[in-house]
Amino acid sequence: MTSDTSTYRTVVGCEIHVQLKTKTKMFSPAANDPDSKEPNVNIDEIVTGQPGSLPVVNEEAVRLGVMLGLALNCTIPEYSKFDRKHYFYPDLPKGYQISQYDEPIAQKGWVEIEVGGKTKRVGITRAHLEEDAGKNVHPEGLSYSLVDYNRAGAPLLEIVTDPDIESAEEARIFLQELQNIVRYVGAGSADMEKGTMRCEPNISVRKPGETTLPKYKVEVKNINSFKFAESAINYEVERQTKILEEGGMPRQVTMGWNEKGSFTVEQRSKEEANDYRYFPEPDLPVLHFTKEYVDLLRNSLPELPAAKRKRFKEEYGLPGADIDNLIAWKDLNEYFENTVSELNAWVATDKDAGVNLDSAKLTKQVANWCLQDFSALLNAGHLDPSESKVTPENLAEMVTLIEQGKISNSAAKQVFKVMFEKGGEPDAIVEDLGLTQVSDESAIGDAIQKVITENPKAVEDFKAGQQKSFGFLVGQAMKELKGKGNPQVLNDLLRKELSK
Question: Are 154 and 132 in contact (CB under 8 A)?
Fold first, then answer.
């Protein structure tokens, strides 16, 4: 919490629901498929709450929940239990949700984020397992609603933060880092647009002079993007600040986010814990986590985003923006590292042959190709790097060909497009397309002499100080070489000739 009490201060805590990536649901063998289009196909007697049906805990969901808890630096208690949380909505066929109340599987953790060049730690109050509810559907033009139970019973890990977030920007950065962590652990897709990660910020504003938490909080639901989360918080802070400035007190309510109008809409008064009438779930046993089990999962954690971000900076010396963009796409940064590994093999081979290549420069070029041309083609085709025909070895070889002066950057783009569409070795594609760059000084010198002879006016203009004439002469020489001239060699030789 900030110690500055001279202005109105934003206080935000987030509740984030992460759908876990399991084959079946939290307490039933029904399929857990967030991509199902046809309603009410992933259901069974347990999901729909038929009399006599009994829940069974999904072991994989528990494992993923503990893994994610460990990745969030949480303590995993020895014992954890499930509880019944009662509320009555059409999307909850049993009339209650199986959740966890006072003994969650993970508690008291933290996530570090970078805000304005400074590191900030956001506390994690708890993370608990529960089942999802169904989805209410409101067809346009109809006077009634429908319910799709495909999502009902899906395994969720609800992550609750401490009220440590002090701006909409901090909330967005935290949510993006949390999404990265979920994906690195392999716990889920954490796709906000598809609803496999849903955020509900609890927002309040502290008045000048206040050092304790406000006596109210407003929860905003129906948020399915980082941008909307940031916008909703900014809107609520402005709305609540205005009420406080006028001497009022914002009501503790649940709001919905109107995406089209970019404003919040009151839905209902916010419930308290006692409204849900929690009690221990009688049909499920208490979970017992041994130290050996927790240590086994802790030791199987992958390299997490924060550690990888630090290593990328130290090992590759890339700009911060490049690192952040690579970290945000797990498959892409793994592809990048594999390409750099292949590149180092090429550099070592050329060094043995007496050719010195700049490894740091080549690494930056690999990052550029990954984040620009490659990412654009992958996104257009809705592909992951592992699904591409361009192997890390192919990309490493192509970058090396550019550095060796064998192909130009513009030619490389043509080569890369062919590799992406059809696959193949870059040197063979260069040969097939006739894109080999001319670096021979004799051939380039002949072209320059011809251009100088045929364009005396442009030569005179350049010597008179008109720099644009140099570009014209370069263009004519490149035309003479059919676009294959090495730009650096051509520029150097032309300037040398014109200085005579």
Answer: yes
Name which of 10-14, 152-156, 171-175, 397-401 the model is least confident about. Answer: 397-401
Give 409-433 pLDDT, tens digit per residue: 888 999 999 999 999 999 999 888 8
CB 12 within 8 A of CB 165: yes
CA distance 321 to 318: 8
The residue among 188, 153, 150 whose CA lies nearest residue 68 is 188
| Alpha carbon 289 to its chain's center | 31
User: Would you mind telling me the total number of residues written for the chain in this entry?
Assistant: 500
Cα angle: 411, vertex 415, 416; to 5 degrees:
115
Q: What is the gyration radius of the CA atoms in the chain, in angstroms?
A: 30
What are the pLDDT digits (tens) for 351-407? 544 445 678 889 999 999 999 999 999 999 999 999 999 999 999 999 999 888 888
Taking the C-alpha atoms of residue 225 and residue 199, their distance in angstroms, rounded to an integer, is: 9
pLDDT of residue 440: 57
**In DSSP terms, which residues pair with 233 in a beta bridge?**
none
Q: How many CB atoms lie within 10 A of CB 444?
A: 23
For residue 438, what pLDDT is reported?
Answer: 61
Cα gap 238→496, rounded to integer Å: 64
Q: Please report the pLDDT score of residue 265 as a whole number.
A: 94
Q: Give the tokens for residue 14.
A: 């987030």
The DSSP-derived string for 279-319 is EE-TTSPPEE--HHHHHHHHHT----HHHHHHHHHHHH---
Distance CA 458, CA 354 (A): 40
pTM here is 0.87
What are 387's two structure tokens? Answer: 């699904």
